[in-house]
């Protein structure tokens, strides 16, 4: 009984910390009044997953927007040869969503997987639409976050289409240096669109410069 009560208290504390984290993010993107912020807690669901657990799988429809408060995630797809290809990574205190599946309500081509034990908040699409309909502040915030997600995805596409492997490596080193310490060479090479042995040769060549 005592253990159950302790777990409930811990859950409430973690939920409270997660809500404060998302409020801080909102304040940095599009500050809004307390009246609008008070609409948030009632629609949120707090979840925890273990390392290697999946939040979304290929073939499932993305019905939520998520906000990662602790941990680290990867978004990947499986190509025609059965290889896992990393498309993007998500760090703490950021939103993640399969935008196309979410907007069109069609099955996703991607997997979202926890690379560490992770905690996140779930915002259902139905509740988000209600917020947009009742609050201009939330409507504005949703637009800004959508633009942010789009730009992130577009940057990724441009990196793959218009940069050489060396340029991709240097771009990643300047924009997300922490990634090099957080993922294996296998995951890093997949993200950069090269084979692990090619990444090894690239690193050695750059070290000689």
Radius of gyration from CA coordinates: 19 Å
Identify low-pLDDT runs. Answer: none
Q: How far is the N terminus from the C terminus?
A: 63 Å
CATH class: Mainly Beta
Shape: globular
Number of domains: 1
Major sheet: 4 strands, antiparallel
CATH topology: Jelly Rolls
Helix/strand/pairing category: alpha+beta
For this entry, give a set of tags.
Crp/Fnr family transcriptional regulator, cNMP-bd_dom, single chain, alpha+beta, 8 strands, RmlC-like_jellyroll, 209 residues, 20% strand, cNMP-bd_dom_sf, Jelly Rolls
Offer a quick outline of the entry.
The chain has helices spanning 2-29, 34-37, 99-104, 125-134, 136-162, 165-175, 179-182, 185-192, 196-208; strands at 45-49, 54-56, 64-70, 73-78, 84-90, 94-96, 111-114, 118-124.
Mind explaining what this structure looks like?
InterPro entries: cNMP-bd_dom, cNMP-bd_dom_sf, RmlC-like_jellyroll. Pfam families: cNMP_binding. The protein has a single domain, classed as Jelly Rolls, CATH 2.60.120.10. The protein has 9 helices and 8 strands. Helix 4 crosses helix 5 and helix 8 (185-192) packs across helix 9. It is globular, with a radius of gyration of 19 Å. The protein has helices at 2-29, 34-37, 99-104, 125-134, 136-162, 165-175, 179-182, 185-192, 196-208, and strands at 45-49, 54-56, 64-70, 73-78, 84-90, 94-96, 111-114, 118-124. A hairpin with a 5-residue loop joins strand 4 and strand 5 (84-90). The chain has 209 residues and is of the alpha+beta class. A 4-stranded antiparallel β-sheet has the order 1-8-3-6. A 4-stranded antiparallel β-sheet has the order 2-7-4-5.
